[in-house]
Amino acid sequence: MSSNVVRRIIAHNAGKGAKFTRSFRPVKLLWTMVIGNRSAAAKKEFAIKALSRAKKLAIIGGKMAIKKLP
Description:
single chain; mainly alpha; 4 helices; about 50% helix
C-alpha cells in the first residue's frame, strides 16, 4: 500500500524497504490498483495476501477479477 508507488519500488531496490524485499531484489512491479482510501486499501491488500500463489498470478494475468474480494 503506497501513495507513491514509484518511490516505494526505488526504496525497496535500494534495500530500504521491508525485510523480505531486501533478500529478493530487484523488486519488479507487476500489478497495481487504485483504491479510494487507506482503510479500503488495507482490507484489499489483506484479502489478496491471503490468496494462493495461483490466484495471485491469475489476478496479475487478468484471468481473475478481484471485485469479489473485500
